[in-house]
Specification:
Layout (H helix, E strand, L loop, with lengths): L3 H5 L3 H26 L5 H21 L3 H5 L3 H14 L10 H8 L3 H10 L5 H32 L21
Helix pairs in contact: 2-3, 2-8, 3-8, 5-8, 7-8
């Protein structure tokens, strides 16, 4: 199966969005990995759920697939998006992300997460394995979601939203001494 970068290689705008999403995903997965290494019961699950509940909408926004962005589309485009979402089979595109949706997505990597819980209590090596599993589980879920968004945008023929511009900082004014 091709990677998200390979899937977007033919479209420079799409490739830029995929790179932004993957960079965001990498940072969030690192946080999940660090939280997984800490031997406090339940901490990693809470961190994973919090990360996913923010990561999924951020990826949706990069692709123009948040509920607010979809509401602004004309009805025929919205219908194409709904058909594309059904065709791709995702539950996380164009919806408000709830804890229930995050838990459904986490079931995809449930065995990895269970192994992460058990490995964490083995000194040092277990914590390292737990961190690796935590990182890879979030990374896997995020990559799958990026692929789903990419497929929905292509199937529906949507234009990507304009990239968010960084606010420019005004130079500090100099005070007369």
């Amino acid at each position: 199966m091709p990677s998200t970068l390979q899937m977007a290689a033919s479209d420079p705008a799409m490739l830029a969005v995929v790179r932004q999403c993957r960079q965001l995903l990498h940072r969030r997965a690192l946080v999940a990995g660090v939280a997984s290494a800490v031997p406090v019961p339940g901490l990693d699950w809470a961190v994973d759920a919090a990360l996913l509940s923010r990561l999924i909408p951020a990826i949706n926004a990069h692709f123009g697939l948040t509920p607010e962005q979809l509401d602004r589309l004309d009805p025929s485009k919205r219908e194409k998006v709904q058909k594309a979402v059904a065709q791709v089979g995702t539950v996380l595109v164009g919806k408000f992300i709830t804890q229930d949706l995050v838990l459904r997505a986490a079931k995809l990597v449930g065995v990895r997460l269970t192994a992460k819980q058990a490995a964490r209590f083995v000194p040092l090596a277990g914590q390292a394995v737990s961190a690796l599993i935590g990182y890879s589980a979030i990374r896997y879920l995020g990559e799958q979601h990026i692929k789903d968004c990419l497929n929905v945008v292509r199937s529906a023929g949507l234009a990507l939203p304009a990239p968010a511009t960084e606010p420019t900082l005004k130079p500090a004014s100099r005070r007369a001494a």
